[in-house]
From TrEMBL:
Protein name: Erythrocyte band 7 integral membrane protein-like
Pfam families: Band_7 (PF01145)
Transmembrane segments: none
All residue ranges annotated as the Band domain in the record: 1-147
Key words, A-Z: Membrane, Signal
Cell compartment(s), UniProt: Membrane
Record GO cellular component, one term: plasma membrane
Main subcellular location of this protein, as a coarse class: membrane
Length: 223
């Protein structure tokens, strides 16, 4: 805490014992601790013509008590109004995508702007944070539909890539089997083993075409 006396239109910082003349002097108490306040929700039109509601919080402290009394009347309300106008001015130059993704950079830009503007008032703006960004309900639905369409598109791409990889693997397997006929017989026996392990009541035995070809007489061979 700090005591300031307004004596004959001059501001003096009170140290030790000081006598105040009635009707001529008056003492002002200045809190030197960090003070925080909420920025009321502001309706802002973004650069891409979207109306949003944004609020925030500001932390500041008085670093020069004499300047805070001599250069500004009611420093706290003045700082609050300046924070509201700064929030509207800064966000009005940004697109909606930038506001949603670059909150830290926007808050830092606001902190620098506020700190520079209040320096003559003896005020140091320590931190600015954007608390909430409220979007119109129609925009919520549009963004949800866009996100769902994007997820569906990615799922289709992944499925297509999987089918392409599977077809390449089948093509390689077919080439290997064609080069080694014994591999087809081994695959045939492996398939029978798998079917038998499932305890099926009916088992269908596929017969290779080369076996049927040997059983067919030359007269019955198709032309």
């Amino acid at each position: 805490m700090c005591w300031i006396a307004n004596h004959n239109c001059s501001v003096l910082k009170l140290l030790g014992i000081y006598f105040i003349l009635p009707f001529l002097d008056h003492a002002v108490t200045v809190d030197m601790r960090t003070i925080s306040f909420d920025i009321a929700p502001q309706e802002i039109l973004t650069k891409d013509s979207v109306t949003i509601m944004v609020d925030g919080v500001v932390y500041y402290r008085v670093w020069n008590a004499i300047l805070s009394v001599a250069n500004v009347l009611y420093m706290d309300p003045a700082t609050r109004l300046l924070a509201q106008t700064t929030l509207r001015n800064v966000l009005g130059t940004k697109d909606l995508a930038q506001i949603l993704s670059d909150r830290e950079e926007i808050a830092q830009s606001m902190q620098i702007t506020l700190d520079k503007a209040t320096d003559d008032w003896g005020i140091k703006v320590e931190l600015v944070e954007i608390k909430d960004v409220k979007l119109p309900q129609q925009l919520h639905r549009a963004m949800a539909a866009e996100a769902e369409a994007s997820r569906d598109a990615r799922a289709k791409v992944i499925a297509a890539e999987g089918e392409m990889n599977a077809s390449k693997a089948l093509q390689k397997a077919a080439a290997i089997i064609c080069e080694n006929p014994a591999a087809l017989q081994l695959r045939y026996l492996q398939t029978l083993t798998t079917i038998a392990a499932e305890k099926n009541s009916t088992i269908i035995f596929p017969v290779p075409l080369d076996i049927l070809h040997g059983l067919i007489s030359p007269k019955q061979e198709p032309r």
